[in-house]
Amino acid sequence: MTTWDYSRPAKPNEPERSTDGRNRIFYCKLCLNPSYSCQSLTSARYHLSHSHQIKVTDTETKAKRLRENRLQNIWAVAEEKNLARAREQEVSASVYVWPHVKLKEAVIQS
């Protein structure tokens, strides 16, 4: 079960969101009088754990999965660029090495 499974909808006289409108307010459905509310899931999990002995594990959010996928794609592209750059450096290094090797071979053979 998730943290939100232990929440209840806001009553008519209670706000659904924080004053800035960004955070949804958690209202504990197990606490009736007085009711408990908070704006962070960490606080809600703490409340469930300490007031009701309910342990809710942290679930991976869709936003977190998308962010991790985006980072993995960025790392993959960077790795491809680094490999391509390394190949270019190998080719350019071999262009400079070959004439010197041929010259040394010619000197040794003569």
Shape by Cα distribution = rod-shaped
Strand order across the biggest sheet? 1-2
Could you list the spans in which at least 5 consecutive residues all have pLDDT below 50?
none
Report the average pLDDT across residues: 85
* Count of the domains: 2
Please outline what is shown here:
The protein is mainly alpha-helical.
Keywords:
two-stranded antiparallel sheet; mainly alpha; 2 strands; 110 residues
3D architecture notes:
The chain is 55% helix and 4% strand. With 110 residues, it is mainly alpha-helical. It has two domains: 3-52, no CATH class; 60-110. The protein has a two-stranded antiparallel sheet. The longest helix is centred in the C-terminal third of the chain and has 48 residues, at 62-109. The mean pLDDT is 85.
SSE topology:
Layout: E1 26-27, E2 37-38, H1 41-52, H2 62-109
Antiparallel strand pairs: 1-2
